[in-house]
Amino acid sequence: MKIRKAVFPVAGLGTRFLPATKAIPKEMLPVVDKPLIQYTVEEALAAGIEEIIFVTSRGKTPMEDHFDRAPELEEMLRCRGQIDLLGQIEALVAESWSVFSVRQNDPLGLGHAVWCARDLVGNQPFAVMLPDDLIQPSTLDGQPVSPVMKQMVEQFQQVQSPLMAVMEIPADQTNRYGIIDPSGPQTETGLIPVKGLVEKPKPANAPSRMAIIGRYILTPDIFGLLGDQRAGAGGEIQLTDAMAGLLKKHALYGYRFQGIRYDCGTKAGYQMGNLALALEMPELRRHLLPFMQERLNHWARMTPTLAGKSP
Ligand code: G1P
Fold it and tell me: Ligand 1 centre and the CA of 49: distance in Å?
């Protein structure tokens, strides 16, 4: 069954990035030359998704404007002959896909945000994509790979069961993620069968070190579970808890995706994403590498050890 719709929970206030996010949504912060949200929307489109569903809140309209026509701007670029830029701006709107939005009136958690999209999703399997997780379609040694959601759609077509992206994390970070409890070894294609899920467990209580990253393919029966879901970790309605309920009816899989993930929900991860993507561009790399070398030398002199903790 084709995955046509993707839910983007984007109602968060972005307090970690204040004051930058006082008047603009954090999803509109640039990563090199595109707003953060655009990367994940492009990833969805590359996976064949036709409907992007933003679950928003007050102050998020710049995101909707970004994926709408801008006639004056387009006309100006045309008059000036800036055809390349015009092409990039026009590509943000196309007849082959649409943007919808629905409000999350109360900040009751990720599970609640997804539930808010139930009428727009209807009775079909769908994707959930968290744009804070920016996933570069490349291996660490620079080999290109498929965009993550495309990988996941292909996996879903094989197993026809809900799945979520997972990656191994350091043991002391389990309290920042949903953690899966595997019921068996990873298959050749990267699927890990799951028998349980826990949202943000302390390291001592974590069933594994495999953390959920913000990409899911879910079946519509999740909405019934979310509707009945009580508040969980952090006093919020958690998607992870409702997914544990899916286990009664479905096999559930973690998918060890290929790609490099930057946690753009943190300042350090956001800076790493910017730097990594800028270094992919020859014109920027030419300036950045000598600068980075000089700064590294400086900090090596200033700091006895450069080994910092990962963010
Ligand atoms: C959410 C999910 C969590 C998941 C994480 C991935 O947490 O609740 O299970 O591991 O996204 O980024 P949040 O980062 O919104 O606290």
Answer: 22
Mean pLDDT for the chain overall: 94
Q: Which atom belonging to ligand 1 lies closest to the Cα atom of 213? A: 6
Query: What secondary structure does DSSP assign to the chain, as a single string?
Result: ----EEEEE-----GGGTTTTSSS-GGGSEETTEEHHHHHHHHHHHTT--EEEEEE-TT-HHHHHHTS--HHHHHHHHHTT-HHHHHHHHTTS-TT-EEEEEE--S---HHHHHHTTHHHH-SS-EEEE-TTEEEESB-TTS-B---HHHHHHHHHHHH-S-EEEEEE--GGGGGGSEEEEESSPPPTTSEEEEEEEEES--GGG-S-SEEEEEEEEE-TTHHHHHHHPPP-GGGS--HHHHHHHHTTTS--EEEE--SEEEETTSHHHHHHHHHHHHHTSHHHHHHHHHHHHHHHHHHHHH-S---PPP-
pTM of the predicted model, to two decimals?
Answer: 0.94
Instruction: For residue 200, give the ligand 1 atom closest to its CA.
Output: 9
Instruction: Supply the residue whose CA is at minimum distance from atom 15 of ligand 1.
Output: 110
Res 138 pLDDT > 80? yes
Q: Which residues line ligand 1 (CB under 6 A)?
A: 110, 130, 133, 177-178, 199, 211-214, 238-240, 265
Q: Quote the ligand 1 centre to 255 CA distance (angstroms).
A: 16
* 278-301 tens-digit pLDDT: 999 999 999 999 999 999 999 888
Query: For position 306, what pLDDT does the model report?
Result: 60
User: Cα(108) to centroid of ligand 1, in Å?
Assistant: 14
Q: How far is the CA of 144 from the centre of ligand 1 (A)?
A: 26
- Span 6-10, mean pLDDT? 98
Q: Which atom of ligand 1 is found nearest the CA of 132?
A: 12
In angstroms, what is the span from residue 213 Cα to ligand 1's centroid? 7
Task: Write the pLDDT tens digit of every residue in 139-175.
Answer: 999 999 999 999 999 999 999 999 999 999 999 999 9
Reported as a pLDDT band with limits 50, 70 and 90, residue 309 is very low
